[in-house]
Amino acid sequence: MEREELIIVDDLEKQAWEILKKSIIYYQGRPVGTVATCDASLGDLHHDHCFIRDFASSALLFLIKGKYDIVRNFLEETLKLQPKKSQLDAYTPGQGLIPASFKVVSENGQEYLEADFGEHAIARVTPVDSCLWWVIILYAYVKSTKDISFALQPEFQQGIMLIMELCLATRFEMYPTLLVPDGACMIYRRMGIYGYPLEIQALFYAALRAARKLLICAGDEEIVIGIDNRLPLLRDHIRHHYWIDMKRLNQIYRFKGEEYGESAVNQFNIYPDSIPYANLAIWLPKHGGYLAGNVGPSQLDTRFFALGNMMAIISSLASEQQSQAIMNLIEEQWDDLVGEMPMKICFPAVEKEEYRIFTGCDPRNIPWSYHNGGSWPVLLWSLIAAAQKTGRSYIGKQALEIAQARLSVDHWPEYYDGTRGLLIGKKARRYQTWTVTGFLLAKELMRNPEHLALISFGQFDSENPSQSCEL
Ligand code: GLC
């Protein structure tokens, strides 16, 4: 029986690799990326695009398998798409931005790459996460190939600097977090996550950590100082203001409103009545906790967002204790957060009036579907990475078993619906590349936890930031 199972699993991986191979995009004869999906049946405009965020899991997988050329080409070509000058026209993408996606276009026998900075996306959302993922992928490439000279090329140093300048620029806000519009990340439709969404903050932290290591020989002291200053502030801000566990919930529950000045305990003026404390008090296990989805003026979004929490663990944005507590929560509330398909993009879904206000009546984001409480198999790899980082491989094993029993049978769908993820997503595309890479990457991470080093960071030592230059 055991042998039979093994063979089936082997076949599964073989099949997944076949799909992945078919998804590779060639540009002037060189592999440069992977398409979002090999399923064109839904007539989706973007199916032939390579999305930067989608490619992150492909990149890690290729690096693990020693297939460096596709990742190198991807990094070189996407860097060329980054605007290098500030734009006078406010409708064109700003300096330093990396597109959401690109595709190969052929005209008169000539090939060129066409970038999409959100102009072709629904609602023209800005892909803030792309430049952050780009730095993270570059770091993984250097770490894997041990070829720091690649990142030290002047155009790469300039590319990183432009991204850092874009992120660290003085703007209107007075917090160390990044202020972004709705739909600036994986959830790229209106979902009430404008402001300071956790996913962006976790990716921002990881990108800062990566850039700090990649800018070692850079002449621009100011940027390096800027990163060193920002890292501990961002980390402490998130660890304090975003954290929710029973102890913290008790404090929030008794918060006084309308406090003024420096000594205010309730710094963001959160009104306890705005948070579902009764439900949370039942849901939160004694030793569990998580980072909130968003924190802003009179706003504490208590929804659990998976990618933000997983990336916070992987990048050490969350403290060791918090990371353990997040994994405790996942274990205790397994049915809600993992269910029958790892894992829920966010929990709980917004329903009724909240659904109408938060999503603008988006028919795709109806409760327990797509971004609004749907289950996304791509998140499997980040769950496994977080489980390994916290020494809980058994959680990863369990999640992987659930996923591999269904993914191939269901033709590798983009997402699942329902409170337990039992339904194949209403409008899910099949043969979604990051569903396939999420699974394959999860397998590789389970086989060899050392691969985690490509994407994870230890605790940041603010006393000695230069120590963190070692790759
Ligand atoms: C969906 C997702 C987005 C992803 C894209 C391509 O729009 O919201 O995160 O990048 O599909 O797979």
Please give a structural write-up:
With 471 residues, the chain is mainly alpha-helical. Helices cover 45% and strands 10% of the residues. It has 17 helices and 13 strands. It has helices at 2-22, 52-64, 68-81, 128-145, 148-152, 154-168, 198-214, 221-242, 246-253, 277-283, 306-314, 320-332, 334-337, 352-359, 379-389, 393-404, 433-447, and strands spanning 24-27, 30-34, 50-51, 101-107, 110-116, 243-245, 289-291, 294-296, 299-301, 304-305, 346-347, 416-417, 423-424. The protein has a 3-stranded antiparallel beta sheet with strand order 3-4-5. A hairpin with a 2-residue loop joins strand 8 (294-296) and strand 9 (299-301). The longest helix has 22 residues, at 221-242. The protein is globular and about 65 Å long. The structure holds alpha-D-glucopyranose (GLC).
Radius of gyration: 21 Å
Indicate the proportion of strand residues. 5-15%
Instruction: Please provide the ordered H/E string of secondary-structure elements.
Output: HEEEHHEEHHHHHEHHEEEEHHHEHHHEEH
**Main sheet properties:** 3 strands, antiparallel
Strand order of the largest sheet: 3-4-5
Distance between the termini: 44 Å
Number of strands: 13
Give the oligomeric state of the chains in this entry, treating copies of one chain as homo and distinct chains as hetero. Answer: single chain
How many separate helices?
17
Low-confidence stretches: 1-7
**Average residue-wise pLDDT:** 94
Which structural class should the secondary elements be placed in?
A: mainly alpha
